[in-house]
Amino acid sequence: xxxxxxxxxxxxxxxxxxxxxxxxxxxxxxxxxxxxxxxxxxxxxxxxxxxxxxxxxxxxxxxxxxxxxxxxxxxxxxxxxxxxxxxxxxxxxxxxxxxxxxxxxxxxxxxxxxxxxxxxxxxxxxxxxxxxxxxxxxxxxxxxxxxxxxxxxxxxxxxxxxxxxxxxxxxxxxxxxxxxxxxxxxxxxxxxxxxxxxxxxxxxxxxxxxxxxxxxxxxxxxxxxxxxxxxxxxxxxxxxxxxxxxxxxxxxxxxxxxxxxxxxxxxxxxxxxxxxxxx
Length: 279
Ligand SMILES: NC(=O)c1ccc[n+]([C@@H]2O[C@H](COP(=O)([O-])OP(=O)(O)OC[C@H]3O[C@@H](n4cnc5c(N)ncnc54)[C@H](OP(=O)(O)O)[C@@H]3O)[C@@H](O)[C@H]2O)c1
What we know:
Low-confidence stretches: none
Strand content: 25-35%
Strand order of the largest sheet: 11-10-9-12-13-14
Radius of gyration: 20 Å
Order of helices and strands: EEEHEEEEEHEHEHEHEEE
Number of helices: 5
Mean pLDDT: 94
CATH class of the largest domain: Alpha Beta
CATH topology of the largest domain: Rossmann fold
Shape: elongated
Distance between the termini: 39 Å
Bound molecules: NADP nicotinamide-adenine-dinucleotide phosphate
């Protein structure tokens, strides 16, 4: 079968389409024939040996954390899954940057990491939204839940996670201002939850956000990090929540906690844990 592997860190040129073999599933595992895989920004971070990696990767490395498909073999031991089940997963048990391996036609995966797919959710939809949707769920259900009429600032509102956050926040009644990198993304973001958009590469997003929401936003959802997080304090109203969930432009610089005292703001950083055991 085919897989996409990397033998070294780098740009997309390091991706190689190669033949690989698959062992039988171990106890507790099933073999999934993958019909769709999800691509995430974290794949890029892992591919280029980015800031999430503390240790040297074991090459060859198969990227990816997310896919949907069909169970084709069940390993020894009890499991809730049978051959023919349609399934999806977001992660395979460890930290997402340590336990990759979705860029492949078939893989063995612990059955505890799988969810069964209802008939009305296509494989492509499940593979594209499970990880991003769970991340949005953590942000909204664990960090800050939008309230009706709350003005919100969502950075990179046309991104995978950002566009789900924007739609979810709007669904809960918030007024959503989204930053985006291009006019095409602005159009997409307005069709997916944003009331207003700011082209943050060509206009000062703080100035524009204060024009749109003079009293300041109730919360900021930020997956961009270095370029946006600290400046977003100037968009916030007193007691606002600033949630950083990603670092597409690089990690948020260290800051003095006394900075929060100016407005009594809350700042948090969050990460999806898979399996999602928060209790
Ligand atoms: N905390 C968690 O557990 C968790 C889980 C999933 C994802 N994440 C993080 O959430 C963020 C979004 O993930 P995603 O998969 O939804 O991303 P995505 O769809 O690939 O979108 C990332 C977007 O970030 C924006 N961006 C701003 N500065 C950038 C830069 N210097 N380089 C590249 N992109 C830049 C770009 O949008 P514009 O062109 O509009 O600026 C880009 O399209 C990422 O930082 C990711 O690592 C975190």
